[in-house]
Design brief:
alpha/beta
Length: 494
Amino acid sequence: MLNAWEVQGGDPQRDARTTVVVVGGGFSGTLFALAAAAARLDVVLVEREAKAGPGLAYGACDPRHLLNVPVARMEVGLKPSFAQWLKASGADLSAAIEEAGGDLARAFVPRALFGAYLAERLETALAARNGRLRRVRGEVVRVSDRPVPSVTLSDGRRIEGTHVVLATGNLPPRPPRTRDGGVYDSPLFVPDPWRWQDIDTLSPDAPVLLIGSGLTMVDVALMLEARGHRGPIWSVSRHGLVPHVHADVAGRLGGVEPFLDPAEARDPIRALRLIRAAVRQAAARGVPWQRVMDAARPALAAVWAGWPQKARERFLRHGRTWWDIHRHRMAPRIADAFGALVQSGQLTVIAGRIASLDLVPGGVAATLRRRHSGRALSLEVARVVNCTGPRSDFAGLAVPPFDGLRETGRIRPDPLGLGLETRGTALLDRYGHASTWLHALGPLSRPAFWEVTAAPEIAVQVHQLVEELARPASRRQRPDARLIAEFVDLGEGI
């Protein structure tokens, strides 16, 4: 694959007419903007927040929140590398390096550091590109191709280009469907934990209910603990399962080679059998199951692409929760801190569902229904925090610019509610035709690949799209199958 960072020269006429408007200045959008500008494309990066680069993933976090993967897996082709930048940053990495046995590449460092790294790379590029890369602060409310591809901002400004790239990242979570008694419309409900405005005014003894038990719940619980919270914390989810912890084994994939064959893993049951067999073989050699999961990941996009829709539905209904807790794991230090909260009795994780929420004087009365016994549990809490994870069902989403694109048929939400349908990075319209001007990166394109959340996976998308746009229009291709093949080539990198 052409390395977009090293493209030199090119067709001056092509350079003059290729202008890409990027919607979203988080990780995906920033990485694309940097790569495209390096490939001599004109780029306008539109981000509504004051700072572009970190986004919510690497910006709305406490110092205690760590990356969910080690430093080596966060390398995305920037210069200096993330590891080199860390060494020169002056940040206190002693705990992370000690945990990693002295190897920075295997260390779990604070997420905010990666956000600072991205922001600095962007600021450097903005200063050096001589107008090739431009940043605009504003909120995109409309995307259109008439008369030419363009975006319209909430203040009325209109930015034209030849292509538009949607890189908005994850959307805020959707509240569970339950009888909420007005709680969802009250200040006692926190719809997005990364925009919890009054967290610092919450009484340290106040009881809190967290909806969900994944990595977001872990982060929020530790965020409360770091602020000196002493009150009880409850977490409720359908299965009551929490993420597992990473296990570190030196060497490429800990000695486990990529093993999933899409032809053999042609449905979820067969895929699970292959993974379990590989886990048993690895255990016989003293290799933990975590490395088997890592070795399975390169083939996931190809396996997912080979499943019919009914198989995908079965996986999402029966296997998704189990996959998530094994795949999206905690850093060891995070797992220790989380375990201490549980052991102390301050945090209780419940398997069940919310039967009802009601406003009462001074708080919220929550009735939970336990999963196995069906017994009711009544709680009175000061806050209810939605930690269910990002929303991805675009079919009924009334959020610009997606609502307008959906109504005009420019995008097609997938029927499983995972995101938007694409071919490669090109968005499909309501008739299934791939766009020549509208693209999506990162989590938005999840339906085609199942997982496009890790930094190296997104980097592959970015570089391949830049490579296509850097060619003269007459030589551009559809990079759909090749994108899946290059995910496989990533190996341990993801």
